[in-house]
Amino acid sequence: MVYKRTEKEIFDTILNVANEHDFVRAVILNGSKADKNCLKDDYQDFDILFIVKNVEYIVNSKIFPDKLGKILIMQTPDKMDGIWPDNKDKYTYTSS
C-alpha cells in the first residue's frame, strides 16, 4: 500500500523546510491550489515558489528539492540543455 500524504502534511513540510533554512526569504503558493474558485481534485499539484538569498548556492548544493519528499521525476528547465544561463538569479525545479 502506498501512503499518500494529506494536504496539511504537505503544507506543513513546505513550511518546515522554509523555517529550517535561513536562506529562505519567503514561500509563495500559486497555481490551482492558490485559487479559491478552482475545484479541488486528486491530481492537483503544489506549485511552490521559494524566494531565497543565494540561488546559485541552492542549485550547486543539490540539498533543497529532496527535503520536500521522495523525488520520482525531476526536471530542471533552466538547465535542460546542460548550460545554466548567465543570469543566475532564478532556477526552476519541476518534480513529481
Counting DSSP H or I runs of 4 or more residues, the number of helices is 2
User: Helix/strand-derived class?
Assistant: alpha+beta
Helix content: 10-25%
How much of the sequence is in beta strands? Answer: 15-25%
Which descriptors apply to this entry?
single chain, about 100 residues, alpha+beta, two-stranded antiparallel ribbon, 2 helices, 4 strands
Write the topology of this structure.
Blueprint: H1 7-20, E1 24-30, E2 47-52, H2 55-61, E3 74-75, E4 94-95
Antiparallel strand pairs: 1-2, 3-4
Describe the structure.
With 96 residues, this protein is an alpha+beta fold. 22% of the residues lie in helices and 18% in strands. The protein contains two helices and four strands; from the N terminus they run αββαββ. It has helices at residues 7-20, 55-61; strands spanning 24-30, 47-52, 74-75, 94-95. The strands form two sheets. A two-stranded antiparallel sheet has the order 1-2. The chain has a two-stranded antiparallel ribbon with strand order 3-4. The two termini are 19 Å apart. The relative contact order is 0.16.
Quickly describe the structure.
This protein has helices spanning 7-20, 55-61; strands at residues 24-30, 47-52, 74-75, 94-95.
